[in-house]
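chain and backbone:
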Amino acid sequence: MKRQRCRRVVIIFLTVMALAGGTAVAMPSRGFSANENRYLAVWPTLDAASLWSGLFQKGMAAYVSDHFVLRDGLTAAAGAIQRAQGRRDINGAYLGADGWLLAAITSQDIDTELYGRSLALLDRLAADSGVPMVVMPVPDAGIVMKDELPPLAPMYDAAALYATARQVLTHAAIVDPTDALRQASGQRYYRTDHHWTSLGAYVGYRCLAPALGLTARPADGFGFHMVTDAFRGSLYSKVLNPDAPYDDISIAAQPAGLQVTADGKPMDGLYDMTALQGKDKYSVFLGGNHGRLDIDTGHGGPTLLVIKDSFANCLVPLLTGDYAHIIMIDLRYYEGRIGSLVTEQHVDAIAVVYQLSNLASDTSLMKLALG
């Protein structure tokens, strides 16, 4: 009797899984998951080469996984079970104190060899161009806010990464904002997202400005104001805890006379207010990530090139008062040659603003080897 009951359970489970997988194949595919803030796997190409190499099978597995029926519901249910079991690390997010979610990034996630090569390429760009360069890697929340981590939760060795940068970057200045972020009061990172807040970005700006030869402006001169109090970010999407707190997003006031273009298309300004109606509300800053974004401020001054990831998106608006032209390049989406861009655009200074752990894992910086 017990064996028959087990057999029935197995049959029901396999039937449900087969129906869910079949439904995932039959239903129209979704291109983008707003909840996970990423593009989903596309239907793989079927031909003799892909079938023989196994690429089709791998692509099909990824497609079914991404489009699995009730994927979000199952993720939420799994997270609830793990929380009930006392787990403090769920799907790459630490469950910290006071409702905090912090990215669980350990030494195993850091590619030290890639990091060294990326730094060497940045240093070569600075040497070859002769343009002053400042590199500011931004530490993750778990590095700055250690008290919010679960007990004994491991994180990568940020101090070692900064030491490597100081050793490799012989033609560029290195800025480490860790101590300033630790000493600052107020919410410097979002509780449910891996990015720093506008306050955190302002602390970073105060560290970056002197290295660029600028005088940092006081915070009250930027007109920071809240635009939403209903933000749940990338770390919430990993856990899907219905009791997770909501975050506020504040932005600086936009100066008059700006002209902004993203990949050659004009934007309304520094902020995309329509993003506040969707899941990825952090994209209010500059409309998210673009291969190339140009800001013409309408006043005189030098030209700044910013090589960046999304951490720079809420910091760059604070630099518009000091430059006539700011060019932002995200190497994940840009296919041009940076060396040529520096020459053609008469760049006066280069700032590299990256999440520290991303700088130590992002392969797109290898594009700098092209010149």
User: Anything to note?
Assistant: The first strand starts at residue 32 and ends at 33. The two ends are 72 Å apart (CA to CA).
